[in-house]
Amino acid sequence: MKATPAAKTRQICEELMRTVGAAPDSCVVAWDGALEPRVTFATGNVEAVFHARASALVGLPAGALFFGGERAARDLATACARLPAAEQRPLLRKGSPFPAQLLLRGTAGGGAVALVRDLAVAQVQADAALRAEDLARFASLVAHEIRNPLSAVKIALQTLERHGSLAANDLRRSSIALREVLHIELLLTEVLEFARPPSLSLVPGDPRRPVEEGVAGVETEWSARGVTFLRRLPERMGPVVLDSVRIKTAVKILCRQAAVAAEEAGGGAVEISVRELPSGWELLVAGPGRTLPPELRAAAFVPFTPQRARGSGLGLAVVARIAREHHGVARIEERHGGGNVIAVSFGN
Fold first, then answer.
1. What pTM, to 2 d.p., does this model score?
2. Calpha distance 5→251 (Å, rounded)
3. Using CA atoms, how far apart are residues 313 and 319, in angstroms rounded to an integer?
4. What percent of the chain has pLDDT over 90?
5. Which of 113, 121, 127, 313 has its CA 20 to 30 A from that of 219?
């Protein structure tokens, strides 16, 4: 059966809409080739672009959408009668102009179909992206500027503690100062990682190596503070696709956070386990401390929602991002005997 002109127009509209999917700044409208053209079809995010329901547009004079009224609608239909055309021109949204980009195709009977993109929305999104990029660069700059002198302070405090000649009160004060330095260092690390632009280098490798390197990277500074790290790694594992630098970053963040919780609980052991899964592998970091209630566990991975009295709420957000980069997920479970287990799965 031969398709009707209306069916063909609808098909063209749907094809155009599929090219942009559910883009929030785009919709498709069609109008006929009459002397006083009217809208015959509308789909996509019509409400976002024209501030009206698609059904409300159908039947309206097409001139209500264009500067120049009916003549503009007819001229656009003529422009795309033989070949698809593209134009940028202001359209009307309830009588108010907005900048738009049009991709036009002619239809049977002299009408037209237009993929309409609201350039005002696109500009707002572009400005927001630029602001986010500027804020990320600023955060990175500030963190680096603080980190260098902070490292010198940490080394000096650690040297004083090892020297052994401090009086008891002075040793207690230096221990408090060092704890504060470690807290600030953890905060800066989380900010830097959160502001870091995505950059992956996925290659086959043994996940045990970056896990071990991540644990070793934080073990020295925390072992003197009554926190121990227990590894439970399998003797051998098959290669998986991963970014070893990002995995090591996730391990460091999780170990540092677990170490802070352990110290607040008066010391204890942080347990790091790795196990193979049917389609990847899983990292588990368990430590003592305050058990997080179930209703707060999902929110723990949302940026800027710290679960401790002192914290940025960025560390677990970074871990969740690294998990997603590896087609995995992160979750929190209750640890037997008190505390929490953070389980991060990584796809293969």
1. 0.54
2. 61
3. 11
4. 34
5. 313
